[in-house]
Amino acid sequence: MTDRKRQTGYFLLIAVIYLIFVSLGLPDSLLGSGWPEMQSAFGVPSSYAGYVSMTISFMTIISALVSPKLMQKIQTKWIVIISILLTIGGLLGFSVCTEYWMLFLVSIPYGLGAGAIDASINNYVALHYSGSIMNFLHCFYGVGAMISPYIMASALRHAHWNEGYRWTACLQSTILFVCILSLPLWKKNQTAEEEETLKNSAGIREAVKEPGAIQTLAAFFAYCGGEATCFLWVPSYFAGTKQGLGAETIASFGSLIFGGLMLGRLIAGFISNRFGDRKMIRMGIALELIGILIVMLPFPGYLITAVGFVIIGTGMGPVYPAIQHMAPQNFGKKNSAAMIGLQMASAYVGSTFMPMVFGLLQQAVGIWIMPFYLLIFALMNMGMLEFSYRKLKKTKN
Questions:
Q1: Using an 8 Å Cβ cutoff, are 13 and 181 in contact?
Q2: Which side of the chain, N or C, has fewer Cβ within a 10 Å radius?
Q3: pLDDT of residue 208
Q4: φ and ψ at 277, to 5 degrees?
Q5: What is the CATH number of the domain that holds 359?
Q6: Backbone phi and psi for residue 374, each to the nearest 5 degrees, phi listed first
């Protein structure tokens, strides 16, 4: 293969991975955006969204934990195809649900489709691309997550919440078609040495013993606990604290965090190679804390609060990609696949339980408590990461 053809294949594969990251973000904000209407349709309390979210995340944890074994036996491209198929099945399943209990059944493929693809693609990018490209790629996750609230808002305006899931499934099907066409590109960009590295990679038990691993997992738990709470409850926060807003307007607020995430990762894509992963994380969490403080301010309108949530999302933006990108450097290429799988599992433990805990908390205390809840996770995220850096520094010395 000539250098020109190899370079063309390299950039074409990056373009396909961009689309895959869009597909990763598409399902994540649908439940939060559609829940105020879904809750009414099913006749259940507002906190019941947490149970559905918990089921999805639990299946994703299982998928993420088995991802290191899958990567040893199945090439990344096939994990991508199978995972997107499962996600499409879950989306179509949601679109035909007529009873609340049915949501739990379709959450199984919905969640299974998320974990393995997330871990495998993040490991592939961490091994092959720079921190700048990692941030740009995760920016496209934000594109997908920002699009779907508008899909749901359009469905609520012109049809019903079911159509929001159905239209998103159609969009996912288009991405799946492009991924199938791109299958030859993966072979061209995967060397025999890289395939051998994946086959001989460490297992979960070995990776978790690495210095700083436990602290990194705790940080990921905290990050995704706060992030998933925003994903699910931001529209409900506006519904509960601001008066006179229509259902379509409330649903569209689900895009605030995702828009912020996209903006934060876009900015990080331009500057992360200069500052490095650790500085990007520190700057991101500092900005997130500023956004949380803005949301705490008791303004009667919704504009300042909306700006605060965008700032929160912008601060969160570089944290997730940077932690993932540091895995090969911090824990070695041998441990990279298992460590990223563990990080994904830990992240989804936070995603599974923390929105549900907040659902129960806001039902008992009031949804106004949300920024204080987010503050706890932001501080925990920062503290655990700084602790892990110290452990890694002692090991290298």
A1: no
A2: C
A3: 72
A4: -65, -45
A5: 1.20.1250.20
A6: -65, -35
Q: Which residue has the tokens 């090969």?
A: 328
Nearest alpha carbon to residue 109 among 97, 94, 121: 94
**pLDDT digits 0-9 by tens, 221-241:** 999 899 888 877 888 888 877
Residues 319, 285: contact at Cβ < 8 Å?
yes
CA–CA–CA angle 67, 134, 315 (5° rounding): 105
Tell me the C-alpha distance between 183 and 77, whole Å. 7
Structural tokens at position 187? 């072979």
Q: Is 95 helix (H, G, I), strand (E, B) or coil?
A: helix
259 half-sphere exposure, CB direction, 13 A CA radius: 14
DSSP string spanning 282-351?
HHHHHHHHHHHHHHHS--SSSHHHHHHHHHHHHHHTTHHHHHHHHHHHHH-HHHHHHHHHHHHHHHHHHH
Q: Is the pLDDT reported for residue 155 higher than 80?
A: yes
Q: What phi, psi does 208 have (nearest 5°)?
A: -70, -15
3-state helix vs strand vs coil in the chain, percent to 5: 90, 0, 10
Which of 256, 226, 228 has the alpha carbon at shortest distance from 242? 256
What's the rounded Cα separation, in Å, for the pair 384 and 104? 33
* 229 closest CA partner among 107, 342, 373, 51: 373
Instruction: Quote the number of domains for the chain.
Output: 1
Half-sphere exposure of 214 (CA within 13 A, CB side): 4
Could you tell me which residue, 265 or 120, shows the higher pLDDT? 265
pLDDT band at 6 (very low <50, low <70, confident <90, very high): low
DSSP code of 244? S
Residue 326 is which amino acid?
A: M
Residue 345 near residue 57 (C-beta atoms within 8 A): no
The verdict on pTM exceeding 0.85 is no
d(CA 343, CA 360): 26
- Check residue 371 and give its pLDDT: 92
How far apart are alpha carbons 253 and 237 in whole angstroms?
9
Let me know: does 189 contact 13? Beta carbons within 8 Å: yes
Collapsing DSSP states into helix, strand and coil, what is residue 74?
coil
Q: How far apart are CA 295 and CA 233, in angstroms?
A: 14
Mean pLDDT in residue range 314-339? 82
For 117, the domain range is 3-396
